[in-house]
Design goal:
The complex is a heterotetramer, with two copies of chain A (353 residues) and two copies of chain B (596 residues).
Chain A: H1 38-52, E1 60-64, H2 68-71, E2 81-84, H3 90-100, E3 105-111, H4 112-116, H5 120-129, E4 133-139, E5 142-143, E6 149-150, H6 173-179, E7 184-189, H7 193-205, E8 209-215, H8 231-237, E9 238-247, E10 263-267, E11 273-278, H9 288-301, E12 304-311, H10 319-323, H11 335-338, H12 341-349
Parallel strand pairs in A: 1-2, 1-3, 3-4, 4-8, 7-8, 9-12
Antiparallel strand pairs in A: 5-6, 7-12, 9-11, 10-11
Chain B: E1 3-4, E2 6-14, H1 19-32, E3 37-42, E4 51-59, E5 70-75, H2 81-86, E6 88-97, E7 112-116, H3 118-125, H4 129-148, H5 152-163, H6 167-187, E8 194-195, E9 205-208, H7 210-221, E10 225-228, H8 235-248, E11 259-262, H9 266-279, E12 283-287, H10 289-294, H11 296-305, E13 309-315, H12 332-336, E14 346-348, H13 353-370, E15 373-379, H14 380-384, E16 387-390, H15 408-412, E17 442-444, H16 458-476, E18 483-485, E19 491-496, H17 500-512, E20 518-522, E21 524-525, H18 529-537, E22 540-545, H19 551-560, E23 567-571, H20 580-595
Parallel strand pairs in B: 1-8, 2-5, 5-6, 6-7, 10-11, 10-12, 12-13, 13-15, 14-15, 19-20, 19-22, 22-23
Antiparallel strand pairs in B: 2-4, 3-4, 9-16, 14-21, 18-20
The chains are: A alpha/beta (353), B alpha/beta (596).
Bound molecules: thiamine diphosphate (2 copies), iron/sulfur cluster (SF4) (2 copies) and magnesium ion (2 copies).
One iron/sulfur cluster (SF4) binds at residues 33-34, 37, 39, 68, 140, 144-145, 218-221 of chain D.
C-alpha cells in the first residue's frame, strides 16, 4: 500500500460486449500517474470505447511517444501490443506499423509536449499522409513528466504553479489539423466521459487520420487557479459545439433513439454512420472552413469548443488508398509473392550489359 | 609507353549538358567489346553548369580501381582546362574542343595536344541550340572512337538500342559520331599508342551500380516497406527499389505488394522503418551521413527495445554537409556505435555492387535473427558508379530467416512467455502485433526486465543489457566472414568495402616488387573469429581505410584488444576512390624503412 | 560494530509525498553539526506514487561515495519493505512505520527492528489529510534525531529558516519532530550504537548539486544565451541558470542582460546555441543522452564550420530512454566522437559540483579559443545530488578568453583575411557578424577551403580537415590537466568524473590492505601529455568507469595507442553511484591473481 | 566559359542609395544555380530591396538551410556574414543569432523542402516565438537539389517530370502561418519583381517574424506542362489580392504618389507605414480570419493569392519584447556587466549551508 490511495478506475458494469468480453478484458497495468490525473480518465474512456466497439484487443496496437500521457498506453488493453517509442516520434512509428499491417486498429496517444513541440513536424505529416489511426492528444498545457514547464499549447496569460504567466501564443492542434486538411478533428475533455466515448469510437472507425485534442488536466503542475487547462477552467469554459453519436454499422437502428434535435449524418467508409447532434446553432461539422472559423471564434472569446468539430466521411485519401496497397496486410504476404525468382533476374540482367 | 586494353582516360565536361549519357555510351561500348572497364563519375553537388569529370579505366587484367595516372584527358570544359592539362601523365595526350582555342600558357610540355572543334562542327551541322549542346558530347565520343579504336558498330548498336524508336534522333547521333570520328582520323594518326582491341572477358558480366543492386536485392529479400528521405548519394537506391517494385510487385488489378514512403525527414524515415519491422514487415531505409546523425536516437531505441531494421548508409564525404558528391568511409564509427548509452550494431561492408545485392537478404536475415538494427555501410563510389561485376544470381531455395518469431501456436505450447528472455545465444524470442494472448507485450525504450516489464531496478536492468551483449557476441560469427588471401606472410593488409579493388591491385603490384603480404577484407561487424585470427597471426598489419581518424583500426583495437603497435594506418580521405599506388607506396615505404 | 560519525542510513518512501524535504532537512542538520555528509537520492521516473530512496552517508573522514553497506534502513514505504529489509547490513537496524504492522515473513534475523507508528501519530495529532501525509516525514525525522543523536536545536533552526514566515506551519513541524523524537526515546534505547557527534569539518563547505553549480558558473563565465529542452536529469541546470540570471542579470529598469529560450526540442536548442555563438555570444545548452543523439548533426556542423558552443551532458542510464533517474557514464563515445564523418570533440569531465562551477568558464574559454563544440560531461549523480564541497570562489581578475576574434581594427591591418587559415597551432581566426568588409565570410558545413570558399576540390578539402586535426592536437594540452596521485607504483588506476569519491576511497582502503596504486583522474579530452605519461609509466592500469562497453578505456587505446593488455576494466553500469568496494574488490582480486 | 551561357543578373541602374552604395555593393558570388532558376530572380529582388532600404550590408545576416534555394544567400551581399547551416534548421540558428545580436537585419532563405518537410517544426516554432526576421520560402514544389522529388507544397495532381502526379494534399505555408499567429504573411512570385520588392522591404522592416512564400519555379525539374509551380501556371493563376507599398519612415511623403485606389495603412513599430492597395474587393489585410478565408478560397478555386496578405503592425510579441531583453545587443555587453563577482558569490554561498 502506498500512502497515496488511488481509487481504482471504475467501470460501469461487467456486461459483455459482442465478443463476449467485459471491460475488464480491456484493462491494462496499474496506472502510475498521479491520483486525479486527467490522463487516467481518458484511459477509462478508451476502455469503454474499445469495449463498446467490440474491437478484439489483440487486433489493436497502442502507440505512444514519451511523457505522462504517453505512458497511458500501458494502462489499458494489456492484450494488445504496445509501443512506447521516443519523444515526439510516435506518428512515424505508427505510420510504419500501419504501412506493414493495415488490419490493426491503431490508437496513438500523445501529450501536448510530445505532439506540439518536438513532434510537431511528425504530427503534421501524419495528418498530411492521412494515416489511418486515432491520434489522441492528452493536452494539459504543460510538460507533466519533466515537472511542469509550459508547453506550446499553454494559453497566453495562463500561469505556472510558481506564478509566472505564459506569454507566447499557443499552437492549437484543432486549427492546425483543420488547416492541414485533417479528415476528422475533435476536441473533448477528460472530465466529460459522456462526450468523449462516442468521439473516440467514431475516431477509431474513421478511415484516415482522426485527431482528438482532449483537455486533460495535470493535477500536479497545472490545475491551480490561473491555469487555463485546469479542471475548473475547462468545465467553466467548455462549449459543446457538436456532439456525435457513433452508430456502428450493424447497430444502426437500435441506437436511433439517441438522436434528437437537428441531425447531420455522415456515412463512413464501412457504412457506419456518425450523426452530429448540433448543440450550437448553425454549426455544420462537414464544412471545413466553417469549422475553422467557429473554433477560432470560440478561442477568441476564451471558450473551449468541444465536440466532433469536423469530419469527412469515406475518405479517399487514406495512405493505403492512395498507394493502392493490396488489401492483404503486407506482413501476411508470402515470400513467394514477393520474390521474383532467378528466372526473372536472369532476364533482367540482359538490361545491364 | 604503348599498351593495348590497359590505359585510362578522363573526360572533363560541364554537368547538366548531356555528357553523362555520352560517357556511359563510351564505357558501355568498351564493355561490349569484351574488355574489362570501369568508370568513375566525379560530379558536383549542383544541377547544372559546374565542372564534372568522368574517368574510364580499361584494364585487360580486370583491375577496377581508380587509375593512378591518366593517359588521355578529354578537356571539353574550358573553365577547367588549366587544371585538366596538369592531370595528364607525362607523355600523355590531351584532346580539347578547339572551337575555343587553347591559350598559349595552357600548353604543356611532354603532352600531345589534339584539337577537335566539337562545338564548331555541331554549329555547322545542327540547327537547334539544344541539339548543338547535346550532340557536342557525341562528337567527342566519335573522336574518341577514332583515337582509341572503339568499334563503331558497337556504338551504333548501342545508339540503336537507345534511340531505336526515334529515327531522327538516332540519325543525328550517327551524324555526330561520324563528325568526330572523321575529324580525328583526318587530322591525327589514329589510334593513339594505347588503344582497344576486342577481348572476350565480359560476357558473363554486367555493368551496374551498387544502389541499383541493393534496391534489387531488397525486392528479392522480401522487403515490403521502404521509407526514406532524399539525400545524395543514397537517393538512387530507393529510386531503384521503387522501380523494381513497380515492375515485380504490382498485381494484375493494379494493387501493390509494397509501400514506399518519402518521409518528411530521416527521423521520420527511421521511425517508419522501426514501426514496420515491429509490425512484422521487412522494412528498410537508405541515407547518408547527415541522416545517420539524425537517426541516432531511433537507432538506440531499436537496439535496446530489440526491433530489427535495415539501414543502408551510402557514405559521402563528411563531416557535416561535407562534399555530398565525393566518397569516403568515415561513418564507420557513427554506424557501429550509433546512439548514446552503450550500443553496438551489426554492420555489413559490401565491396561492390555484387555484394550490395547479396548482402541485402543477409542484412534482413541478420536484423530479424538478432532483432537489432543492421547497417549496410556502402559508399558513393560503390553506390553511384557503374561497376563491372559477374551477373547476379538468385538462389530460388532461399527462405527468409525471420528469426525467433512466435505465433499463436508456438505460444500455446508455452506456459509463460517473456519477451526479453534468452532463448539461446543471448537471443530472445518475439511476437508480432495481432497475436494477442500471452504473446502481447509492451515495447519500450525505457528500462525493462527480461519479461519486458518496466523497471528501474539495477539488477533487472543489467540482466537485459548483459544478455544483449551476449547476443552481440553470437552475431560476431553470423555476419559475413572476411575474405582472406593468405600465403602465410608475417605482414598483412586489412581493408573494407570499396577499396577492395585498389588493395587487390596493390597486393599484386607489391608482389611484383618482391613484397608479399596477406590480405583480409572484412565484411561484417562485430568481428568474428577469422578476423581475430588474422590479427593474431600477423606481425605487422596495414589497415587501409578512407577516413582521417583510422576508424576501422580503432574498431579493431577496441573490439579485439590487438596491440596498436602492429596496426599501421593507410589513410586516404580526400574524397576520391582509392588508387592502388597509395597502398603500394605506403607498404613499400614502410617495408623499406624496416629492412634498412 | 559501534561507530561515531561513520555510518550510513537509507530512507525508503513514496515520491510526491513530501519526503524529499524531510531528507534534505536530515542531511542539512548533520552538515550543520559540522560532520561530513553525503546524500544520494534514488528516485523514480514519475511524479507521484512510486518508491523512492534517500541514502545518507556520514563520514568523519570525508568520504563521499555511495556507501557499500547500509547500517540503518528507515522503511516508510510498505510496498518496498520486502526488498528494503534485505538491504540492511548484517547486525544493522530497520525502522518502519508500525502503523501498518510488518508481516511476519518480512522480519529478518540479525537485524534489529524498530517500529515507530509515524502514520498513526499523525492521524492522532493533525486534522487535515494533507498535513497528515506531509508531516509523517517530519515524524520520522524526529525519530531519527533520537536514534542518531541529531541535535534538535539544529533541526529547529533549519525549520525556522524555512518556515519562519509561516508560524502555524512551523509549529506543526515542531510538533511532528517531537512526536517522533519522544516516541523513539520512550520505546527504544537511544542513540543506536552508531550516532552523531558535533565536529568542525564543514564550516568552509557548502552543500550544492552540480547542476546548480554549473548554472552559477555559466553566469560568472558571461554566458548570455541559454537554449534548452527539458529532460531529466539536466532540467535543473537551466532552471538554476535562469534563477541566477534573474537574480544577477536583471537591470534596474527590469530589462534583462540575458535570454533563455525553451526550445521545441534538442535539435532546435543546438541550432540556437550555434547561432548565438556564431553571432558572438557565449551560449550553451544542457541535455542528457537522447538530446545528445538528436544533436549529432548540428555537432558535426559546428565542428566542421568551427563554431564554438558549450553543451552540458548530464548523463543518465542509456541506451534509449533507459532509466532517466539513474546515473551512468555511457555517453563518453557519443560526446567525444559525435556526428558522422571524421569528428572529435573537446570534453571536460567534472568530478563534483565544485568542478561543474570551475569548468563552466573553462568550457566557454576552450570553445571560443578552439572554435569548436565543447562538452561538459556530467552525470545524474553529480548534477542532481547535493554534495559537500568547499565554498565556491571566483577570481575577479578573470577575463574571458574569446580566442582569435578579429574586429574591424584588426582586419584593417591585414591585407587579406582567410577564415580558415592557420594562425598558429591549427587555430584559425574568426570574425563576428556586423564587422563587414574583408571580415565578412560565409559559414558553411559543406566543403570549403582555407578561405571559407566553397570547394569540392580534394586537396583544398583536405587542407582544412588536416588543420582541424592539428588544432585538436593543440587542444590536448589546453584542456584541464589530470589529477595524478602517484607514489611511483607500477600499478595505476584511472577514472573520470563522479566516481572520484569512490576511487579515492578505494585507493585508501587498498593501501590499508597493503596494495599501493597510483591514481589519475582524467579531466579533459583530448588527452594531454600527462595522460600519456601515466599510461606509459604504469605496467598495469585499472580503468574504472560506469558503462558496459569500457568507453574510456577504448578512447585511451584509440588516442594513445596504449597496449590494451595493460588496461584492465572495472565496469559498473547498473545505474547507481559507484561504491568503493567495487574497485577495492576488483583491484585486490586481480592483484592476488597476479601474485599467486 | 561554360557551355551554359547565363545572363548576368541585371540591375536597374548604378544609382546610389542613402548610404552612397550602388546595387553592385549588394551583390554576392556568381550564382551556380541553373540558368533560369526562379531563385536567381528572388536574389535580384533581394538586392534591390536591401539597396532601396539603405541597409548597410555588414549589418545584415543571411541565414539558410540546405537546398538550391538555401544556396542563394551566397549570391547577394558578400559584405554580410552568411550562414548556410543544416537542412531544415535555419529557423533555430537564426533565432539564436538574433537572441545574441538583435541589431542585425536577419534574412532567412529556405525552400519548400527545407521549410515544410524536415524543417516544418522549426518554422512553426520560429513563427510562434515571433523572432524578428524575414523568412523567404523559395517555393518550387520540388526538392531541386536532390533532383526533383515532390515536396510537401506540391499540389494534388501536379505532375513530376516523368509524368506521375502528386496525390497528397499540399501544406500551404500561408494558411499555416496565419493559423499559427504569424504577424506578417505574404505570397509572391519570383517572376513578379514589381510586386516582390516592396513586400520584401516591408518584411525586412517588420518587427517580428515575416513570412513570404515566393513561388519560384525550378526550370530543371518542375517547369513543365502539368506542373502547378511552373512559370506558366503561376502567371496564369496568380491573383493579386493586396499590393503593398512600403514607406520607410523618412521618405514617407515622397512616395505618396505611388498610392492609388482604396488604401489601408498599417504603421510599423518604427513609424514607417505600409499601405495596402487592395486589388481584390473587400480585402482587409489586417483581419487574420478574413485573410485565411480568402486565401483558402483562392486555393479552392485553383488561384494563387499573392500580395501582402496579412500584417499586424507594431507587434508586441516579438521575442525580445516578450523577454524584456536589454536594448544593447547581448554580444555588446561587457563581461563586467555580466559577472556578479566574488563578493556576490560569497554572499550567495551562505544559502548553501
Ligand atoms: C529527446 C527527449 N527529450 C526530452 C525528453 C524529456 N521529456 C520526457 S516527457 C517530456 C514532455 C512531456 O510532455 P507532454 O507530452 O505534454 O506529456 P505530459 O507529461 O504532460 O502528459 C519531455 C520533455 C525525452 N524523453 N526525450
Ligand atoms: C539531413 C539532410 N537530409 C537530406 C539532405 C539532402 N537535401 C539537400 S537539399 C534537399 C531538398 C531541398 O529542397 P528545397 O528546400 O525545396 O530546395 P530547392 O532545392 O528545391 O530549392 C535535400 C533533401 C540534406 N542535405 N540533409
Ligand atoms: S504530473 Fe501531471 S500529467 Fe503527469 S501524471 Fe501527474 S497529473 Fe498527470
Ligand atoms: S534544380 Fe531547380 S531549384 Fe535547383 S538551381 Fe536548378 S532550377 Fe533552381
Ligand atoms: Mg502535457
Ligand atoms: Mg524546393
Amino acid at each position: 500500500m502506498t500512502s497515496i490511495a488511488k481509487p481504482p478506475v471504475k467501470h460501469p458494469s461487467l456486461r459483455k460486449n459482442g465478443l463476449g468480453l467485459t471491460t475488464r478484458d480491456y484493462e491494462g497495468a496499474m496506472s502510475t500517474l498521479c491520483a486525479g490525473c486527467g490522463h487516467d480518465s481518458v484511459t477509462a474512456a478508451l476502455i469503454t470505447a474499445f469495449w463498446e466497439l467490440d474491437v478484439p484487443p489483440h487486433k489493436a496496437a497502442k502507440m505512444s511517444g514519451i511523457g505522462c500521457s504517453s505512458k497511458t498506453t500501458a494502462y489499458f488493453m494489456k492484450q494488445s501490443h504496445g509501443f512506447n517509442s521516443v519523444h515526439g516520434r510516435m506518428p512515424s512509428v505508427t505510420s510504419g506499423a500501419n504501412a506493414a499491417n493495415r488490419s490493426l486498429t491503431y490508437i496513438g496517444i500523445s501529450g501536448d509536449g510530445d505532439s506540439l513541440s518536438i513532434g510537431l513536424g511528425q504530427l503534421c505529416h501524419a495528418i498530411r499522409r492521412n494515416v489511418q489511426m486515432l491520434y489522441v492528444i492528452e493536452n494539459n498545457g504543460v510538460y507533466g513528466l519533466t515537472k511542469g514547464q509550459f508547453s506550446a499549447s499553454a494559453d497566453v496569460g495562463s500561469t505556472a504553479k510558481r506564478g509566472e504567466a505564459n506569454q507566447m501564443q499557443p499552437i492549437d492542434p484543432v486549427l492546425l489539423a483543420l488547416t492541414l486538411g485533417a479528415t476528422f478533428v475533435a476536441r473533448s475533455f477528460s472530465g466529460d466521459k459522456a462526450q468523449l466515448v462516442p468521439i473516440l469510437k467514431a475516431g477509431l472507425r474513421h478511415n484516415g487520420f482522426a485527431l482528438i485534442d482532449v483537455i486533460s488536466p495535470c493535477v500536479s503542475f497545472n490545475d491551480h487557479e490561473g491555469s487555463t487547462k485546469s479542471y475548473k477552467y475547462t468545465r467553466e469554459h467548455e462549449v459543446e459545439i457538436a456532439a456525435a453519436d457513433f452508430v456502428p454499422l450493424r447497430k444502426e437502428i437500435s441506437q436511433e433513439q439517441g438522436a434528437a434535435g437537428g441531425l447531420t449524418s455522415v456515412t463512413m467508409h464501412d457504412g457506419s454512420i456518425v450523426r452530429f447532434r448540433k448543440t450550437a446553432a448553425d454549426y455544420n461539422p462537414t464544412d471545413r472552413g466553417a469549422a475553422y472559423t467557429h473554433v477560432k471564434h470560440c478561442i477568441d472569446k476564451g471558450e473551449v469548443a468541444t465536440g466532433l468539430l469536423f469530419m469527412e466521411g469515406g475518405s479517399q485519401t487514406e495512405m493505403h488508398t492512395l498507394n493502392k496497397t493490396v488489401k492483404t496486410p503486407l506482413v501476411d504476404l508470402a515470400h513467394k509473392d514477393l520474390c521474383p525468382g532467378n528466372a526473372q533476374l536472369q532476364e533482367l540482367m540482359g538490361e545491364y550489359r | 609507353m604503348s599498351s593495348q586494353n590497359d590505359f585510362s582516360f578522363k573526360i572533363a565536361t560541364v554537368n547538366g549538358t548531356g555528357s553523362a549519357s555520352a560517357n556511359t555510351l563510351l564505357m558501355q561500348s568498351i564493355f561490349r567489346m569484351g574488355i574489362p572497364v570501369t568508370g568513375k563519375n566525379i560530379f558536383p553537388s549542383n544541377i547544372q553548369g559546374l565542372p564534372t569529370w568522368y574517368e574510364i579505366r580499361v584494364s585487360k587484367d580486370g583491375y577496377n580501381a581508380r587509375p593512378a595516372e591518366i593517359d588521355f584527358v578529354v578537356a571539353m570544359n574550358p573553365e577547367t582546362y588549366k587544371q585538366d592539362v596538369k592531370t595528364v601523365r607525362d607523355g600523355g595526350y590531351l584532346m580539347y574542343d578547339s572551337s575555343w582555342p587553347l591559350a598559349e600558357e595552357l600548353h604543356r610540355e611532354n603532352t600531345t595536344v589534339l584539337g577537335v572543334p566539337c562545338g564548331e562542327l555541331c554549329v555547322k551541322t545542327f540547327e537547334r541550340d539544344r541539339d548543338r549542346v547535346l550532340l557536342r558530347n557525341i562528337v567527342y565520343t566519335g573522336a574518341l572512337a577514332a583515337f582509341l579504336d572503339i568499334d563503331l558498330d558497337v556504338i551504333s548498336e548501342l545508339l540503336r538500342e537507345k534511340f531505336g524508336k526515334k529515327p531522327k534522333v538516332l540519325e543525328m547521333n550517327f551524324t555526330a559520331v561520324k563528325l568526330g570520328y572523321d575529324y580525328a582520323k583526318k587530322n591525327y594518326t589514329c589510334p593513339l599508342p594505347f588503344s582497344l582491341k576486342r577481348m572476350n572477358a565480359t560476357s558473363e558480366h554486367i555493368l551496374i551500380d551498387g544502389n541499383t543492386a541493393f534496391g534489387l536485392g531488397a525486392v528479392f529479400a522480401g522487403a515490403t516497406v521502404g521509407a526514406w528521405y532524399p539525400i545524395t548519394p543514397s537517393t538512387s537506391l530507393m529510386d531503384a527499389f521503387t522501380a523494381f517494385c513497380q515492375q515485380y510487385r504490382t498485381n494484375a488489378d493494379g494493387t501493390k505488394n509494397y509501400i514506399i514512403i518519402q518521409a518528411e525527414d530521416e527521423l521520420s524515415a527511421a521511425g517508419m522503418v522501426i514501426g514496420a519491422n515491429w509490425a512484422g514487415a521487412r522494412a528498410f531505409t537508405s541515407t547518408a551521413g547527415p541522416g545517420i546523425s539524425l537517426m541516432q536516437e531511433f537507432i538506440g531505441l531499436a537496439y535496446y527495445a530489440e526491433v530489427p531494421w535495415v539501414c543502408v548508409d551510402v557514405q559521402r564525404v563528411g563531416p557535416a554537409t561535407g562534399m555530398p558528391t565525393r566518397t569516403q568511409q568515415s561513418d564507420l564509427f557513427s554506424c557501429a556505435y550509433a546512439s548514446h548509452g552503450d550500443t553496438k550494431h551489426i554492420c555489413l561492408y559490401p565491396a561492390d555492387p555484387g555484394e550490395c545485392f547479396t548482402m541485402a537478404p543477409q542484412a534482413f536475415d541478420l536484423a530479424e535473427l538478432f532483432q537489432t538494427p543492421v547497417f549496410v555501410v556502402s559508399d558513393l563510389d560503390i553506390g553511384m558508379n557503374d561497376w563491372m561485376i559477374p551477373r547476379l544470381e538468385w538462389d530460388d531455395t532461399y527462405v527468409p530467416n525471420r528469426g525467433r518469431v512466435l505465433n499463436a501456436d508456438d505460444l500455446a505450447k508455452l506456459e509463460k512467455w517473456g519477451r526479453y528472455q534468452d532463448t539461446g545465444g543471448g537471443i530472445p524470442s518475439r511476437t508480432l502485433p495481432g497475436v494477442g494472448g500471452k504473446g502481447a507485450f509492451f515495447t519500450r525504450g525505457s528500462g525493462h526486465n527480461l519479461n519486458g516489464v518496466y523497471t528501474e531496478d539495477s539488477p533487472e536492468y543489467k540482466a537485459v543489457l548483459d544478455r544483449i551483449t551476449l547476443k552481440f557476441k553470437t552475431a560476431a560469427n553470423a555476419v559475413p566472414k572476411p575474405i582472406v588471401a593468405s600465403t602465410g606472410n608475417d605482414v598483412g593488409v586489412i581493408a573494407i568495402g570499396g577499396t577492395n579493388g585498389a588493395v587487390t591491385e596493390a597486393v599484386a603490384h607489391l608482389k611484383d616488387q618482391g613484397i608479399t603480404v596477406d590480405y583480409m577484407r572484412i565484411r561484417g561487424f562485430p568481428f568474428g573469429d577469422e578476423v581475430v585470427e588474422f590479427l593474431e597471426n600477423h606481425e605487422r598489419i596495414f589497415v587501409v581505410e578512407q577516413n582521417r581518424d583510422a576508424q576501422l583500426r580503432s574498431m579493431l583495437m577496441i573490439e579485439t584488444n590487438t596491440n596498436p603497435n602492429k596496426l599501421l594506418s593507410i589513410l586516404d580521405y580526400a574524397g576520391l576512390p582509392l588508387t592502388a599506388n597509395v597502398v603500394v607506396d605506403a607498404v613499400a615505404g614502410q617495408m623499406a624503412g624496416v629492412q634498412s
